[in-house]
Design brief:
The protein is of the alpha/beta class and 365 residues long. The protein has eleven helices and 16 strands. Strands 10-9-8-7-13-6-14-16-15 form a nine-stranded mixed beta sheet, sandwiched between helices. Strands 2-1-3-4-5 form a five-stranded mixed beta sheet. Strands 11-12 form a two-stranded antiparallel sheet.
């Protein structure tokens, strides 16, 4: 068995339930056999190493622990994992990557080595860093990680000329979107998407629970969200935030709040919702991983503000045509290709008949 790969698989099970803490997986191995494993529990619960050590019990003595992130060495809601590892008599620790949290940042490794443990760092580091990329950004900058998702035809259309968009992609791609939502703390759209599609923005996977549903955030500068929309009338209405501006009528704000949702008035920027302010507000609430499923107007604004950290582009083998058909990124556009935002490919996946292209914005040279 590839023990670090198993630890990464365990960590993925925690995604979406640990914010603002990282999602970590751990495997305890003794004499070539797995004797304990676990992943981070929701905030206030034990970390992955402690879960795995408890399962291993006395068999942890002399064992090797594979963990996807450097063990913490400070007191937070729980005691340091380094102390748990030393106290259990572990012989060696393999950490996929260091924790850039200023309270850890290599000190966990130093503490373990000072206690006589062998420590190895770097196995599956790229995979481990991508898995916790939202935590890594938040802990080093204080800002949340935002990924943009859109589905388009091969000729770059997200809908037809009359706005019809169901469905651009097939069931496998739509299933992947639910997986992405399940790992996000919040899903962001503009009110235009609500008016056009009346989305639910929920996770609808087997075994989904209310605790794993993301916040639904609507950027709506005049609070014109329809009171009959599904976001305000399902069982998760209390997890809906309408981010608006002082231009919103008080009656509209009261009507949204009467539905159980939150109408949050933020400062306006050029008459629109202050998007950096929205992200700052969400970060203050422990939201560190945001998935945008917005239309072309809001997506263009997110790019313009430099808020996009990752792109998920689903591409269907279809041609829609139409000069007026919307594209994933609207706005005024650029005058020269020299000003286009460069992306760095991460991977390409086949999902049924569709492709998923994953990329990161990169600084212009």
């Amino acid at each position: 068995m590839d023990y670090m790969a198993r630890a990464l698989a365990l960590a993925r099970q925690a995604l979406g339930s640990t914010s603002p803490n990282p999602a970590v997986g751990a495997v305890v191995v003794r004499d070539g056999a797995v004797v304990g494993e676990g992943y981070t529990q929701p905030p206030g619960g034990p970390h992955a190493e402690v879960v795995a050590l408890r399962q291993a019990g006395k068999l942890a003595r002399g064992a090797t622990v594979y963990v996807t992130l450097e063990p913490c060495c400070h007191f937070g809601r729980t005691p340091p994992c380094t102390q748990a590892l030393v106290g259990a008599g572990v012989r060696a620790v393999h950490a996929a990557t260091l924790d850039p949290n200023p309270r850890v940042a290599g000190c966990g490794v130093q503490e373990l080595r000072a206690a006589g443990l062998t420590v190895v760092v770097g196995e599956y580091e790229a995979e481990a860093r991508e898995l916790n990329e939202a935590f890594l950004k938040h802990v080093t900058t204080g800002r949340p990680f935002l990924a943009v998702k859109f589905a388009m035809t091969l000729d770059g259309k997200i809908a037809t000329t009359n706005g019809h968009s169901r469905w651009v992609t097939g069931p496998e791609a739509r299933h992947r979107v639910h997986e992405l939502r399940s790992t996000a703390d919040a899903v962001l759209v503009g009110v235009g998407t609500v008016l056009a599609d009346d989305p639910q923005l929920t996770v609808r996977l087997a075994g989904s629970t209310a605790a794993r549903q993301p916040w639904r955030v609507v950027a709506d500068s005049h609070c014109c969200i329809p009171l009959g929309c599904r976001l305000l009338n399902d069982e998760y209405a209390e997890r809906t935030i309408v981010a608006t501006t002082p231009a919103a009528p008080p009656a509209a704000l009261a009507a949204v709040r009467a539905k159980g949702a939150e109408a949050l008035v933020l400062a306006a920027r050029d008459g629109q919702v202050d998007l950096p302010g929205v992200l700052e507000m969400l970060a203050s609430r422990g939201v560190i991983n945001i998935l945008s499923e917005a239309g072309s107007t809001l997506t263009a604004a997110l790019f313009a503000f430099g808020l996009v950290d990752k792109v998920y582009a689903f591409v269907a083998p279809k041609v829609a045509g139409g000069g007026r058909a919307p594209t994933p990124v609207g706005g005024e556009g650029i005058a020269s290709m020299d000003h286009a935002l460069p992306l760095q490919w991460r991977r390409v996946e086949r999902l049924g008949d569709d492709l998923l292209l994953v990329a990161y914005p990169r600084a212009k040279e």
